[in-house]
Amino acid sequence: MNQVQLTKQLKVSCESCSLSELCLPRGLNAKEMDVLDDYIERPRNLAHNVQIYQPGDKFVGFYAVRSGGVKTYLTKKTGEQQILGFHLPGEVFGLDGLENSKQRCYATTMENTSYCVLPYDQLDQLCAEMPELRHQVCHLLGHEMNCDHAHLLLLGQQTAHERLATFLLSISSRFKRRGFSATSFMLPMSRHDIAGYLGIAVETVSRLFKSFQEKGVVKINRKQVDIIDIDKLNEMVANCEDSGQP
Length: 246
Fold this sequence. Notes:
By secondary structure, the protein is of the alpha+beta class. It folds into two domains: 3-155, Jelly Rolls, CATH 2.60.120.10; 159-243, Orthogonal Bundle (Arc Repressor Mutant, subunit A). 45% of the residues lie in helices and 22% in strands. The protein is built from nine helices and eleven strands. The chain has helices at 3-8, 20-23, 30-39, 120-129, 131-157, 160-177, 191-198, 202-214, 230-243; strands spanning 41-46, 51-53, 61-67, 70-75, 81-87, 92-93, 106-109, 113-119, 184-186, 218-221, 224-227. The strands form three sheets. The chain has a four-stranded antiparallel β-sheet with strand order 1-8-3-6. A hairpin with a 5-residue loop joins strand 4 and strand 5. Helix 4 (120-129) packs across helix 5, helix 6 packs across helix 9 (230-243) and helix 7 crosses helix 8 (202-214). The termini are far apart. The relative contact order is 0.13.
């Protein structure tokens, strides 16, 4: 499946959407899927670098990326962005607003992006009627917590090159799950955003990409990434995990 195919599917129902199994429960029957389908607002198409919501905005529901990509972040006093996460097709974001019915961060498109919205008021009602949907919401919340923990581990216990290796492997596995190549893909985020997510300087990201290329691990052409030796990439992360050292 490629980006063109995803774009052509923007107007299809959830039942026909190729990404539905990534953001919706698999146990819903046809009638339940039709009911859920009626409540979902879709699709919303935005250009690159358009803000979806900001801190303090009312929490309206869960967002699911259909195509493109979204970054969530906070801003430092210096104006720099502290990137919290990157959200690819089939992934859900906006769950942080559940705590007090207000969004706590910014969400902005990284490229031309489309997404669906499941209004929370309807979702709360549907969860009471559909156990499988309630289980999926719990799964999404658990996944969000695991991602937060993994990000803290990455920032606190890994060196810069281990962080970048972990990041590339994560993107690789996520693209693979969506039917894309795991070893050849286009990054939707900028190097500046990667640096903000990994907690390192953008110059360090560029230097590490060059180092990875010289070692024959990857081939980089702007945002295009080709993983040449995924075993070496895994070794960089495994060495960190085995030693327990940063």
